[in-house]
């Protein structure tokens, strides 16, 4: 700043002098021990340790199952509609359709070995092997 003063006019030097006087004046600063705790150590500036979320452990309630069906409503809900009946009949007649309904897409080369194993399981009547192939 002293090397710049010769280049500044009187008004600019007056502004600089006022700012220097303000900065050099008495400053009101409190020691951390004089401040309230929330200002001395603000909680929003503190480092927060993330806690792992614990699993919620609740015992199941021992409640008996209660069902209330109107007259004939349960039988109606269990009855298949015509679309479902048609899909089941088609799947019963063709193993390929059954496997397609179960998700064995023969168009995907990565599923072909699983589809072959599933077809063999259906032919043998082995539900466990079919489930293993599907999984």
Low-confidence regions:
none
Give the strand tally: 0
Count of DSSP helices? 7
Instruction: Describe the largest sheet.
Output: none
Helical proportion, percent range: 40-55%
Morphology: elongated
Radius of gyration: 41 Å
Query: Which structural class do the helices and strands define?
Result: mainly alpha
Distance between the termini: 79 Å
Q: What is the mean predicted local confidence, pLDDT? A: 85
What is the N-to-C order of secondary-structure elements (H for helix, E for strand)?
HHHHHHH
- Percentage of residues in strands: under 5%
Task: Write out key terms for the chains shown.
single chain; 135 residues; mainly alpha; 7 helices; elongated
Walk me through this protein's architecture.
There is one protein chain. The chain has 135 residues and is mostly helical. The chain has a domain at 85-134. Helix content is 49%, strand content 0%. It has 7 helices and no strands. α4 crosses α5. It is elongated. The model has no long low-confidence stretch (mean pLDDT 85).
Topology:
Layout: H1 10-24, H2 37-40, H3 73-78, H4 82-93, H5 95-102, H6 112-124, H7 127-134
Provide a quick synopsis of the model:
The protein is an all-alpha fold and 135 residues long. It contains seven helices and no strands. The chain has a domain at 85-134.
